[in-house]
Amino acid sequence: MTYNEDFFNLANQLIDAGRFIDSKGWVPATSGNFSARLPDGNIAITVSGKHKGQLQLDDIMLIDADANSLDGKKPSAETVLHTSLYKRFPEVQSVLHPHSINATLCSRIFKSEIALEDYELLKALAGIDTHESRVVIPIFANDQNIPRLAGQVEQYMDKHGAIYAYIIAGHGLYTWGSSVQETLRHLEALEFLFDCELRLHGVKRL
Fold first, then answer.
1. Cα separation of 17 and 185, whole Å?
2. Distance of alpha carbon 130 from alpha carbon 3, whole angstroms
3. What is the pLDDT of residue 205?
4. Quick check: is 206 in a domain?
């Protein structure tokens, strides 16, 4: 298969994102998966089973909007969680999913959701321009049935409206944005805010 310039541009952005996220310790072993949407609607996404801090161009593959491989490579089992977000939000152009300590601990401490309120750094999230804001990050039970899990996320948003991110319990965080760079900003801000909440609740960190 011949990849176009848009694919290579986004693939390189995902590779750079993987190195940054790995430098923070948020994608241990081969955990996590990242994606970005091309102008034609197809999606560049990390292949299954690769260390995200050591990604090469061959570790980024191409899928269509329905999560079908277009180049014969094997995507993550969680690919449908990416494509469901792209289908719901036309403005979303990137999805990042790390397995950070903060997100994992938050899912143990807060159980169903974590509320972030009155933090200056909330303004790092797209559309928020005041610290006087409240952002709720829902937490969903882990499920090996990914279409069912994606359906639960959809049902939550049908009831509560758009969200900035969600956590899968004992697993990791999903967040998204209008570009890889914006999604990275969301991720870094949320990780800081999760750390604040954990410390407020007495979780000791080394």
1. 11
2. 42
3. 58
4. no
